[in-house]
Structures are given as C-alpha cells and as structure tokens.
Amino acid sequence: MAEIAVTQKMEVPVVVIRPSRGLAALNLRDLWVYRELIFFMIWRDLKVRYKQTMLGAAWAVIQPVMTMLVFNFIFGSVAKLPTDGIPYPIFSYTALLPWGLFTTALNSASRSLTSNNNMITKIYFPRLVLPLASVMAGLVDFAIAFVILIGMMFYYHIVPTTAIWTLPAFLLLALITALGVALWLSAINVKYRDVGYALPFLTNFWLFITPVAYSAKVISDKWQLIYSLNPMAGVVTGFRWALLGTQIPSGTTLAVSACISLLVLVSGLFYFRNMERTFADTI
Amino acid sequence: MTTAIRVEHVSKRYRIGSAPQKFRYGMLRDQIMDTLSAPIRAIRSLGRDIPKDTPNYIWALRDVSFDVQEGQVLGIIGRNGAGKSTLLKVLSRVTEPTEGEITLRGRVGSLLEVGTGFHPELTGRENIYLNGAVLGMKRSEIESKFDEIVAFSEVEQFIDTPVKRYSSGMYLRLAFAVAAHLEPEILVVDEVLAVGDAEFQRKCLGKMGDVAQQGRTVLFVSHNMSAILRLTQEAIVIEKGRLTKRAPTVEAVDYYLSSGHASAGERFWDEDEIPANAGPFRPVALRLRDPRGKVVDTLRSTEPTMLEMEYQLSAPITGLRVGLYLNTVRGEFVLTSFDTDSPEKFEKFSSRTPGRYLSRCRIPADFLNEGRYAIGVNASSFGVRRYFQDEQALAFNVDATGAPGMQWPEQRLGPIRPLLDWEIEQIG
Known about the structure:
heterodimer; A: mainly alpha; 71% helix; 1% strand; B: alpha/beta; Rossmann fold; Coagulation Factor XIII, Chain A, domain 1; 3 domains; five-stranded mixed beta sheet; 25% helix
C-alpha cells in the first residue's frame, strides 16, 4: 500500500499558472487528457437534443426531406435546373445531407461557449471541448438522415461506384470546415453577441454559394476557381460523385477546398486559444 | 514536506463595468462607433488639455503570495468582494492571473459551485456521470464510486428521474455528493457547506474532515467562522485583494473579526430622516461597541457588547422611555427592552430635562446565537405619545466562535445560545 502511494506521488503532475504573453501555444495534448469529457459532452448533446419533443429523432429526417421536397418543386419542377441526368430528389438530397451536417454543427458549435457559460466561469477544462463536441454530435443526425438516402438509392436504382470509399474524406472536410468557422465565431460570440444574429444570415448566404439546389456545372469555367474557395462546394460535389457517380470534381477544386478549410481550422485554433484566457472574464 | 501550492506575487485586474458583470457585453456596434469616433476625439483634444479616457480597472487581487504544504488544510477568510473567489478562480485555472505565478503539484479539484454541468433533462444517474467527467473524473473512477455517491446523496429512489423533477434540496445533495467524491491532490472549496438541511451539512463537514485526514491539500473558503475553525489549523485573511494576515486559524479569525469594520456598526440620523412630529426628541446615533470600546458590526457571542443610543432633547419630557427591539434578519422577534425598565431608573428618570443623552445597555456574553440581527429603536412616553421609531436602525452579525456547544459541528436553532448551568449526576 505504502509503495503504491509513493509511486502515485511520483506521478503527481506539476502545473505552473502564469499570465500568458504573446501567441498561445495550441497545446492539443491537454485535449487528449480530457477526451472523456468530449465523449460525455457529445453524449449529453444527443441525450438532450430531442427531449420533450413529440417526433424525437424523426426531426433529423424531417428537416432534409422537407427541404428536398420544396427544392424539388421549385428548382426541379418549376425551374427545371440541370442535374447531370440524376433525378432531382436524390440529386438534392445527397447534397442536403452534408449541408445539414455543416449547418447544424456550425450553429451549435458557434453557440457552445455562451450556452455553457456556467461551466466556463466555474471550472477549468480545455474550452475546445465545447465546440468540438457540438460538431461531433451533428454526426448522429447525419447518420439517421443517411438511412433515407440508402432507401432512395434503391428506389432510383442507383448503384454507388467504388468512389464511395472517398465519402469519409468529404465528411471530414465538412466537419473541419464547420469546426474551423465555429472556432472563430464561438470565440467572437463570447464578447460580441452579434454572432447570434449574424449566423442565420451567414448560413442562408452560404447555401446560395454552395451547389446544393443546383449543379456546380452551371458555374462557368472561369469562375470555377473562385467558386471552389468555398470548401462546402468541394464537399457537396464530392458527395455527389462518391454516391451518385456524377462527374468527378477537379483536382484543383478539391485541393483549394481542402487548403481553405485547413487554413480556417488552424487560424481558428490559434484565435480560439488566444481568446480562451479571457473567456471566463468576458462571457 | 513538499509544497503543494506556491503562489507568488499574484495580481488580477478586472475592467470595471464590463468584466465581472454578466449582463453587459460589448456590442460590436459600440466598438465600431468607438473606432469611428476616435479620430474626431483625437482632433478635439488636440487644442485643449483633455485627459484621455482611461478605462477604470480594479485590482481584485494585488500581490498575493503564500505557500501551502502538502496535506495542509488552509482557510481563506475575507469579506464579500475581498477577492477570495477571484483567488480560487485563478487557482483552479478558470481565469488567468494578470501578474505573478502559481505552481501547483497535483490535480486541482474545485468546488466553486456544486452542480456545474448538471442538465435538467438528464436523470440523476446520467448527471452523476456527466458531472463527474466535468469535474475531471475518469469514467472508471465514477463507476467505482457510483454506489457510494448515490448513498451519500440519499436520492436512491429517484436516481432514474430527470433532475428537473428533483426538489432543490435533492438536487444540491446529489451535486455535492459527486463533488465530494472527487479525489484530486488539491481540493478547492468555496462555501459549499451552505447547502441542504442541518443534517446534510453535518455530513458534508464530516466528509471535508475525512478529506483532510487523507493527507490531501485543501483550500477552504467560508463565511462560516465556526466551520473554518473546525476544519483548518491555519488561515489567511484577504482584505481588498491583499493578503493581510497569515496565522493559526484562531488568531486569523480573531484578526478578521476585530478589523476593518469600523465604518459599520454605527447609525446616524440626518435631519431629513427624522419626522417633523418627533418633537422634542431628536435621535443622533446608535452604536455597537465591543468590550474595548471599538465600534463593531460583528460581535462575538463570547464577549459582552455595549449598545448605545445618543439623542437630544430640546424640551423636558415626562415618562420618556428609549428602547430597542432586537430581531433576527429573518424577522423573528428576540426581545424588547427600555432604558427605564428597572423600577429605580423609572423613578429617577420620570422626567428628563433638555440636553444631550446617552442611553447604554449591555448585551451579555454567551447570549446570542450566531447569525445576523437587526436593531429597531423606539422613543415614547407610554400611553401618551410615540416620538420616534426606526425599526431597522442597524444590522449586525454575531459570531459564535467559542460559544457553548461549538464542539459539535451542527447548527443550533433559536436566536439565543446561553451557557446554561448543567449538572450531571450519576444516580444509579
């Protein structure tokens, strides 16, 4: 017993607290130590999300399906947008899945700090846990809505190509983009609640510049490069390619999308880490 | 002995108005307007000598240094707003110090507020896991202590009920139970003993005592001097952000109780507070004095206290009685007493000539229980007229340190706490 106590003493971590100066280190190891908390926060988000609702998790399906129906009527039947020969419902639904994941993740992660302000002012933990857990929690809704897509693929007799194995990569790209933007917005939101008002506008605007309702092909070639500065354009085009076998997105589009989202993520991490020191004082 | 906590020259500065207040957050608009108007202000101030607007800062902590040895239980004493909570927040890494350095050996568990991270929609069971994780416990740790936590909280029957259906007492008990089963090397505790009923408080104090005996380092903040005295051997006193005293607890508590209260413990009446019909009677001041003659707002139940009422009579009054009502701040009447209660005084002062008077009474030692009290003042001639009355003239605290029965960590009911003359006899 005594020996155990001694060895435990040996492992006692030493922490030095001092005012941070200059650019804060990312210190992501801290996040690893708190991995269980991330898990618990995701679990809490899921447990609580559809509490005291009548339809429960069905909402994860209702939202994209209803949007798909509306899009189908306006853009498919009335405007008759070109869809690369794919039936319009599945054409838009395939894009609505990653888009829904992105907006859910972006919205909840951007508000994650302010909605948990009692935790921030009372206890220490790496604040990154909150936006990270919010982003991950969006995956469950995505998985539920994905089941509908599988059904639709059977209905329309669409057999995915081998490119389906690239799907996780596009999913990851969507999550990274959401997290990167949310890191910026959540940190700003701690001080300026304007973010809460800007968010719905931002996601609406973002939907227009993402090929969800239409095909990326309608954008003329000379604008393609600028268009692909939006990482979600790469994600949506990639989803259609991997699942429906539409035209493969160009290498430059993908490279630009990936670079931009990584850039947003890394800059977001640094910004977040630097603002983190004053969260408890300003929230 | 190794040093578990070393605090060196720590200061913490807050901006007044924006930082510590919850409801005032900066609006981007204000910032933009400020930026836009900055050049205009700069031009305006060119010609004249206008001092530049400097934001107001307050130092919540100023140059605080101390160490705590491993296994020591250190009390932290100070008035509201003295900086105790800021110190704990800095120690538990919730907020950064503005200056200085802290070295901590070991994990820090902080009980700044119990129930942090509880979600009303989740059941008791789910919240135990969640709260445990929030407080830094490993899942396996929570699992192994689960039954103990539930037993401690006394909510077994409702463990699978969402906590939003709990009574506030059950909620707090569950929250404290999770927190009390943390096993960090350093435990920081702030006023958590104020939860629950007397029985549960006793249990919590017991738990705190166990923690201390297991050789863990504990920092304990409380307004409850008796809890501080029971649980700690040494304490520091924080006043206006500075550490002003470090001493064995008894001495530190003594220092705290006898300092810094000079401004309070005294009540003056301005002209406009005295009703016009008070007539010949004019109240001047009401004061509480300790045995050394100092004006105090916290009196110690083990010492007698003087209560004095100063007043002026501009005309002779017959049958005047000046007296006080003593109430607890919760509104329970404790007593009423007048300066001419005794027959001799009643005879002697049946009529008072104009002049300035002082009516003094002595509140004996070992009389009041701990708590907060209010004094009301009354000046009247019985059956004739009431000259003046102020039912909330002055409030004061009673500290029961050293009072009868303090060997048992429990709250005593009732506003008085006399030392009665007991005899114990073996009769068989």
